[in-house]
Each structure stands twice: as structure tokens, then as C-alpha cells.
Write a structure and sequence with these properties.
The structure holds two protein chains of two kinds. By secondary structure, chain A is α+β, with helices and mostly antiparallel strands. In chain A, 12% of the residues lie in helices and 21% in strands. Chain A contains two helices and 13 strands, in the order H-E-H-E-E-E-E-E-E-E-E-E-E-E-E. In chain A, strands 1, 2, 4, 5, 6, 7, 9, 10 and 12 form a nine-stranded antiparallel sheet that branches. Chain A has a two-stranded antiparallel sheet with strand order 3-8. A two-stranded antiparallel ribbon of chain A has the order 11-13. The longest helix of chain A has 23 residues. Chain B is built from one helix and 30 strands. Classes of the chains: A alpha+beta, B mainly beta. The interface between A and B is large, with 67 and 72 residues. Bound molecules: zinc ion (ZN). Zinc ion binds next to loops of chain A.
Chain lengths: 230, 405
């Protein structure tokens, strides 16, 4: 049985509701501020027992070795390693855009539409979130519980957070947009996901947690370098 | 059905209005650390403490120490308004020296005699080449060493670099000594430099989860004979490390079925693989220079008290938790660690010494004395144990930080 038309109608309804609510909310958004517009998706301080960055957004060594085909070879979100069941918070005011929508990050995901045409996607969640499209959420609201990609919690528990725009067709680096003490968010841990791969022929590019390119889904690979390290 | 086009048009209108009305993205874009255009002459900048002279906390001096678990802050709070002395001639310690221009370069490593530092990038003022450069520890004009980059032997005399479907082992002047049939994968050279290892894909082994690294087998090639051996153990993990004996290899990972996670030691001669610590989500293991012990970080443990930095003997015995958090490196004598505490509420990083015999913690460089902030945990200890080199998160340049005379 083909559920696609019904699913599409549901998505469009959710989209309309989310955009209208977001338009109403946008009037409450502070005017141009120096501070990043979004909060953290997890409570508390980083640390080995609470949460820490398992993989940055962008040109990571892990993504280079295990390229994400849809994401131009880059990691198109930030991974917060955290135990399964950790409460996930809305990073900003907005409206629920999708619950378990067709946006990847299995087994469960939530998308929230914000002002400025931005969307936040919370992936690899433990279970289907009890939210409905169009529902208004505020920054810091609990929206879901974290899980892991394989749905078994003993392999790689983490929250995958994306910031999308252009009607979900692109992702951008969450680091500049979230109020997180990123410098200490790795808790001193060094792994392939927290290391950026160097294009040895263009060695100053995409080396920092801030300087990373946007990703257009379906676009050509960006990091298939003739010479790279690591 | 007829209403759908109208609804879609309204939707697009709302989306367009939203897009048109929102503030420009530059409002939330942070400052980027980018190199200045053109070749800027590298300036040697030496930053020293603006607070009390760092006569305490230096190895060899009578220093106040803290018991394990102590939480006293190492220094007075930094004063952001205090000017930072910059000069080119000072013997005050600790002392940070900027070795390259802003945005240049990456992958700093010490030369074996601690006299200089090698790094990768395009460091020349006129010479545009990207490659391996060296600069004296106290600063100076960078000198081009080699266009090659890869895994280096400890004396920096050999480099194993990927070249298409193979890896070449060469001298820095480009003379190739061996070719490794390893698909161009990263090669791992032990301190003995008489053999090389790589992680070969374990074809045919089912992938348990795509969020884990693919299964691999360790392959070893003897450089004098070209003989290749592949011990039977199959692992899932990120990287491997040679023990100093050039015989054993440490694997932080799982078995082929993604079970039994932890620290494994592979004896490359007998082929025996031993799980010395069984626990999921161990991170950042480092073998001591004498090969006797391994320090690592346990994360996401059910027992909250088990999270943190641990040390274990290479045979799995003597495991104990250390009273420190953050990044760490071994000091050359294998008796102590240097560590960068994290998290902390200070604006800059700090450098501490952790003595393994008694757990005493000694501040070496407090926050702001001088200020330093390390990018992506990219720092290494000098072979003489008296300084570190790091890539700065502030300006993207390579700096050395000397804390002992
Ligand atoms: Zn991810």
C-alpha cells in the first residue's frame, strides 16, 4: 500500500502550520544580536560522563574516510556523544516541522522550524517523539530522548544536530549559531571526528570548527582530494 | 484537490516573505580566523606572564602541589584588560612564542632534539610551496623541508605517504625506499622503523552499523625483506598505535562482531590479541614512552564514577582512575602527564603536570600567564619535556610554549 500521497499532504500541512507559526514567532526574535541565536540541545556542562563532541560539522577525518554520499562527503551536523535516553532540548523558539520525516538520521528524528528560514534537525533519537507538526516549542523545551543510529544503544550513542535552510535542502555549520562553549566541548577527547582532514594542496582551508562549508544535499563531493592527511 | 495550488502558492509566499524579512546571515556569523592575504613576514611574538613571575610550578623547583582531587584554581583570575607584553627577547617563563603567521599552519611536531618544530602548510614569505617546514623553537624564518607528508619516523628521517593505490616510504628528499601495497592507506611506523603496519579492510565481514568504522585486519610489512604478515584478529576501530618495542600494537575498538569493546593489545609476532580493558566508549588512549602503561578516557559509563581519565598497565593490571579531566600527553620520563583541564570556566587554557606516583598536580601555565588557547587538541610535548607546541584557536598560527628552563 502506497502511503506517499497521504504522507505528503501531512508534511505540507505541517510545513504550512510551522511556517505560519514561525512567522508569528519571528516578531519576538531579538533584533540583530552579536550572540548566536540558538541555545544548546543538551543540558549541563560537557564532560566524559555527560556529553562531548564526537564529531564536528564539516570536513572531518571520519567523514573523509567514511564519506556521507548525500552530504558532499562532509559531516553535515554536529554529533554530541551522550548516553541513550538523555533529554534533548529545543535549541530555539519555533514550531515542529516534522516528526520522523524523510530527512535521514534514523531511527527517529525531529525537525523544528525557526525564524530566519532555519530548521533544526535532531537525529538518531531513541523513540518517536510525542510532538505533532505545527506544535509550538520554546527554547529549552524537552522534545525527545537521544539514542543511537543502530537503535541498540550499545554502539555509538549520540545526538546528531543539523541546522538546515533553503527549505531543508542545505545544511550549515551549527557551531557559529549555538551558544555553546565549543572550545571545551570535546572534553579533551581527540578522535577522527574531532580532527579535520587537510587538503595537502590547499592546506589552510576548512581546518577550524568555524570555517566549514555549507552542504547542498545531492551536490558533488567537496573533499575528494588528490593528496590529503590524515 | 483544486485548493492545493493555492495553498502551495500561499506557502511559498510566506516562505519568501520570511526569507526577505529576516536579518542577514552575517548577523550571526562569527569572526573567522583566516590568514591574511599575500605573504606576510612571520613576526616572532613572545608572550610572557603578566602576573607574578612563574617561579612556582616549574619542574625542579620546590613547588606547591595538590593532592588528587583537589580543586584549587592554579592562578589568579586573568585580567582581560591587562596588556600582554610582547617582545623578542625575554627569559621569563612560561613563555609563548608565535612561530608562524596567522592561519599558518597545522600538524606541528617536534624535531627529535627539541630545537625546532616541523609543521605542514605554506609558510614561506616568498616560497609558495605547501609542504613540511621547520622553524627553530624560539622562532625564526621557516625553512622548507619536504613536499611530502604522511607518517614520519621518530627521527623525522623517513616519511610514509599515500600515493594513489600505494604508500611510499621515502626519505624527505624524495628517494623512495619501499612501496607498500596497502591501497594508499595510512601507514604506521614504530619507533624501531624496521617495519610498517596498516589497517587493511576485512572484506566479507558484515558491517554491524555504518556509524562504526569498517572492520579491519592489521597487516605488517618488514622493510628489510618485504615480508608481509596479517595476524588473524579482526577489529572495528579508528586507529592503531605501536608500542615502543615495535612488536605490539594497541587497538582501541571492538571485535569483528562489534562485541567486546575496549583496549586490545595485538602481539604481531604470535598473533595473539588480548583485551586488556573491556569497556565501551574508551577514548584517546596513549601509550607511555617506556611502553609500560596506557592512559585513556572512559566516557558514557553507566557508573558515573567510572567516567574520566584512567591508567592501566600494558598487561591490563594496575588500573586506576586519575584525578584529572581534559586533554593529556605523556612526559618523556613516563612518570607524569601534562594535561589541559577541561571543562573550565577560564577564557584560556591552562597547562598542568600530573605526577603519577603520588597524584600531585602542579600548575605549569595558568590561564592568561601567558594566554593560550589550543585548537582541536593539536599539541605535542617537546622531547626534552620542557615545552609544548600547539596550533592556536585564536589566530590559527603555530606557537611554542616553554615552561621550564
Ligand atoms: Zn552525525
Amino acid at each position: 500500500m502506497d502511503h506517499r500521497p497521504a504522507r505528503r499532504r501531512g508534511l505540507l500541512t505541517g510545513l504550512a502550520a510551522a511556517l505560519l507559526l514561525t512567522a508569528l514567532l519571528s516578531g519576538r526574535t531579538p533584533a540583530r544580536a552579536a550572540a548566536p541565536p540558538f541555545g544548546a540541545p543538551l543540558a549541563g556542562s560537557p564532560g566524559p560522563g555527560s556529553w562531548f563532541i564526537g564529531q564536528w560539522y564539516g570536513n572531518t577525518a571520519w567523514a573523509h574516510d567514511n564519506p556521507y554520499p548525500a552530504g558532499q562527503g562532509l559531516h553535515f551536523g554536529v554529533d554530541f556523544n551522550t548516553p541513550c535516553g538523555t533529554t534533548v532540548l529545543a535549541i530555539g523558539d519555533g514550531a515542529v516541522f516534522a516528526v520522523d520525516g524523510p530527512y535521514g538520521s534514523a531511527p527517529h528524528s525531529v525537525v523544528i522550524a525557526h525564524a530566519d528560514g532555519l530548521f533544526s534537525l535532531y537525529g538518531h533519537l531513541l523513540e518517536r517523539a510525542t510532538l505533532t507538526p505545527g506544535q509550538v516549542v520554546r527554547v529549552g523545551d524537552p522534545i525527545a530522548r537521544s539514542g543511537d543510529p543502530a537503535g541498540r544503544c550499545d554502539l555509538d550513542p549520540h545526538l546528531h544536530l543539523e541546522i538546515r535552510r533553503n527549505m531543508m535542502r542545505e545544511t550549515t555549520n551549527p557551531v557559529p549559531l549555538l551558544r555553546v562553549d565549543w572550545h571545551r566541548a570535546t572534553a579533551g577527547i581527540r578522535r577522527n571526528g574531532t580532527t579535520f582532514v587537510r587538503d595537502l594542496d590547499n592546506p589552510a582551508r576548512w581546518l577550524t570548527i568555524v570555517d566549514q562549508p555549507d552542504v547542498l544535499f545531492g551536490g558533488a563531493r567537496l573533499n575528494d582530494y588528490p593528496r590529503s592527511w590524515p | 484537490m483544486r485548493r492545493r495550488p493555492a495553498r502551495l502558492a500561499a506557502l511559498l509566499l510566506v516562505a519568501l516573505l520570511l526569507t526577505a524579512c529576516v536579518p542577514g546571515r552575517e548577523a550571526v556569523t562569527p569572526r573567522l580566523v583566516t590568514p591574511p592575504p599575500g605573504g606576510v613576514r612571520p613576526t616572532i611574538i613572545v608572550l610572557t606572564s603578566t602576573a607574578a613571575p612563574a617561579t612556582t610550578g616549574l619542574p625542579g623547583a620546590p613547588t606547591p602541589t595538590l593532592p588528587p582531587g583537589a580543586t584549587r584554581a592554579p592562578t589568579s583570575p586573568p585580567n582581560p584588560s591587562a596588556p600582554t607584553r610582547a617582545s623578542t627577547a625575554t627569559n621569563t617563563l612560561p613563555r609563548a612564542t608565535k612561530l608562524t603567521r596567522d592561519g599558518c599552519c597545522a600538524l606541528p611536531r617536534w624535531l627529535p632534539d627539541s630545537a625546532g618544530i616541523a609543521f605542514y602548510g605554506a609558510a614561506g614569505q616568498i616560497d609558495p610551496r605547501a609542504g613540511l617546514w621547520r622553524v627553530p623553537q624560539g622562532g625564526g624564518t621557516p625553512q622548507f623541508l619536504s613536499p611530502l607528508y604522511g607518517t614520519f619516523s621518530p627521527d623525522l628521517g623517513l616519511v610514509a605517504y599515500p600515493d594513489g593505490g600505494v604508500t611510499r616510504l621515502a626519505r624527505l628528499d624524495g628517494v623512495v625506499l619501499a612501496t607498500l601495497p596497502n591501497g594508499g592507506r595510512r601507514a604506521y611506523l614504530p619507533a624501531t622503523s624496521d617495519r610498517v603496519a596498516w589497517m587493511a579492510p576485512a572484506n566479507g565481514v558484515p558491517v554491524v552499523s555504518t556509524s562504526l568504522d569498517p572492520p579491519f585486519q592489521i597487516t605488517i610489512m618488514q622493510l628489510d625483506t618485504g615480508a608481509i604478515s596479517t595476524p588473524p584478529a579482526i577489529f572495528i576501530g579508528e586507529t592503531i598505535q605501536w608500542f615502543p618495542d615495535g612488536r605490539r600494537i594497541l587497538v582501541n575498538g571492538r571485535d569483528s562482531r562489534a562485541e567486546h569493546p575496549g583496549l586490545w593489545v595485538l602481539d604481531t609476532v604470535s598473533g595473539a590479541a588480548t583485551l586488556i580493558v573491556e569497556s565501551p566508549w574508551l577514548e584517546s588512549p596513549l601509550i607511555s614512552p617506556d611502553g609500560q602503561r596506557i592512559v585513556y578516557t572512559a566516557t558514557l559509563q553507566r557508573d558515573a564514577a567510572a567516567n574520566g581519565v584512567w591508567i592501566v598497565n600494558a598487561d591490563g593490571g594496575g588500573r586506576q582512575r586519575l584525578a584529572l579531566t581534559g586533554g593529556y600527553r605523556w612526559l618523556p620520563d613516563s612518570g607524569a602527564l601534562l594535561h589541559i583541564p577541561a571543562p573550565t570556566d577560564r577564557p584560556n587554557d591552562e597547562l598542568w603536570r600530573y605526577n603519577l606516583a603520588d597524584g600531585a598536580r602542579t600548575p605549569l601555565v595558568g590561564a592568561g600567564q601567558p594566554p593560550f588557547t589550543i585548537a582541536q587538541n593539536e599539541w605535542e610535548v617537546a622531547p626534552d619535556g620542557k615545552a609544548i607546541v600547539y596550533r592556536s584557536a585564536t589566530d590559527g598560527a603555530i606557537w611554542s610554549l616553554r615552561f621550564a628552563p
